[in-house]
Amino acid sequence: MLRVIKPKNARSKRFLENREPKVNENPKQALFIRGSSTSEIIKDTLQAMYDLRKPNAVHFTRKNEVHPFDDETKLEFFLRKNDTAHFMLGNHSKKRPHNLTIGRAFDHQIMDMIELGIEYAVPSYVFDSVKMAVGARPLFLFQGEAFEYRDEYRKLKSLLVDFFHGTIADGVDLEGIQHLISVTAGPISEDSNAMVTDGGAFKSATSTAGTGLIFFRVFTIELKKSGTKTPRVETKEMGPALNLRIRRTKFADDKTMYEATRVPAENRNVNVKNVSRDVFGDKYGRIHLGDQKLDSIQTRKMKALKLTRSDKKRSQGTAEEADE
């Protein structure tokens, strides 16, 4: 457990206040960690993912003895010390070769984790394409029925979207959309794959029964002239290109998930009855009035409703004529 730090000056006080919980949170930071034993495939993958996540990312280039599925203490210590909400851990062993673990935390406590095995990998530097700018937000494309009806696939989809979410923006310029991340769920089978090498790519023999391959691809988006106001969109593979397979998972319980996704009262959209807006943003309201008892309304003391002398004479004259 970290000791409680008391600020000694205004600068350190502002730094600690920036880490405190807020109604509108800061952009989420991600922590990239190398395990105690890594391969070149893992190193290249971590570096490529770090490049996609910059500038809201911290990269540990030295080896660390971290095994989150066995003991979460050390990883939670790193998350709290660096004030990060997401993490990606890479390690390599004979039992689990080219292993990649992606996860997220709530209040610096591990919430969700998914362990992925890399069975095919092509690093980013192999592709001859223009790289995206630092801090650019990606488009996501998820393909495959498994993302709809399998729990581990749905969690992976949520994790990836949350991992690369970036800062919250009211609008996005077309020039700011520079890359696309495509995640495709392959057919699910019980068979294992054989060891194959293909040029600069890598394929592994290890697989998990009951899960299919997940194809992770990154493309650069190029806007070409089309002769109209809408540009013509072309894509070119930017890398990395990964074939992944789910190995182990660990998800939060319902209570923790409820606390993590609870919206503060200040940010809740309060539904006001009988108030609506049209497509142009104009506001419309409906007012319901009760029964108006005009006989019991106090009008004597209202100057505007008082009868003048001429009104009184006129009313008396009409009353006398009616009597005659």
From TrEMBL:
The keyword Nucleus applies. Its main location: nucleus. Keywords: Nucleus. The keyword Nucleus applies. GO terms for cellular component: nucleolus. Residues 28-255 form the Brix domain. Transmembrane segments: none annotated. Residues 305-324 are annotated as: Disordered. It is found in: Nucleus, Nucleolus. InterPro entries: Brix, Rpf2. One of its GO terms (biological process) is maturation of LSU-rRNA from tricistronic rRNA transcript (SSU-rRNA, 5.8S rRNA, LSU-rRNA). PROSITE patterns: BRIX. GO terms for molecular function: rRNA binding. Belongs to the RPF2 family. This is Ribosome production factor 2 homolog. The gene is RPF2_1.
